[in-house]
Amino acid sequence: MSYATNAAKFASILLATIFIVNLAALAGFYFFSNDAIIFCANLISLVLVVVLSFALRKNLFQSKDTAEEKFLSAASHEFRTPLTVIRGYVDMLETYGDDKEIFLESVKAIKISAKNLQLLLENLLFIARAEQNNLTLQKTKIELNELLKIVVESFHNPRINFVRGEDFFITGDEKFLKKMFTEFIENALNFSSGSVVVELKNSPVTVKIVDTGIGIKKDDQQKIFEKFFRVDKSRTKIEENKISAGLGLTIAKYIAESHKIKIKIISEIDKGTTIICKF
């Protein structure tokens, strides 16, 4: 069993427990204003976070490879961030929970962090399955224009322009392909303040995702598909409250490989990036 599988499963159990404990604490505080409930939730959460961090950092998954150690260390960091937010707002509720505005703000922040944790766990489990070649593809006949249209419309973002091509049918897993294009488009939106063009071209059949953002250094253009890799943080433009653990493009690459789609990157600093998917 791979390190990613072990890490994801172990983290899943701990994080589910943390979330349930904190949810119970919120309910207890809201309905009973019981300080003991809040205290116990904080104590249990702290213990679980320490155990999770220790497990990931001290190699309880018997990892000896440097790449695996980096993976576990990065995963530990990504888990701690939303967990810290959850604990911080639980502490705030303990002191100021009678204030309705603070209560609503805390619940909203905790829900966002919980959603981020869920997404992170789903991504880790996806990668674990991909690394073991356990991705099960439900292949059907798909018209590429319609699939791209659905993905683009799901963003509800006027910055995205979709340029249709001639009708072209492919055989693939619709859910996975939607996820792949979603990751590419979301990445383009995150690192660009301008428009993003999604274009289907024929002869040969390619899908281009073009942005006018910050660009990617040549040395980093293949690294962006590595787990937890991020470009220079000072140049990052991730929107507030959006998770970016550096796993989306890794997942997109696995999906592309499983469908024999070739990925090419053309990028220039401060001028933008084009991701080309060749079928």
The strand order across the widest sheet is 2-4-5-7-6
Helical percent range? 55-70%
Order of helices and strands: HHHHEHEEHEEHEE
Q: How many DSSP E strands? A: 7
Mean pLDDT: 80
Low-confidence stretches: 56-64
Overall SS class:
alpha+beta
- Main sheet overview: 5 strands, mixed
The end-to-end span amounts to 32 Å
Work out the radius of gyration: 21 Å
* Share of β-strand residues: 5-15%
- DSSP summary: helix tally: 7
Coarse morphology: globular
Describe this structure as you would to a colleague.
- This protein is of the alpha+beta class and 279 residues long.
- It has seven helices and seven strands; from the N terminus they run H-H-H-H-E-H-E-E-H-E-E-H-E-E.
- It has helices at 3-32, 35-57, 66-96, 100-131, 144-155, 174-190, 248-258, and strands spanning 139-143, 160-163, 169-173, 196-201, 206-211, 262-268, 272-278.
- It has a five-stranded mixed beta sheet, with helices on one face.
- Strand 4 (196-201) and strand 5 form a beta hairpin.
- The model is unreliable at 56-64 (pLDDT under 50).
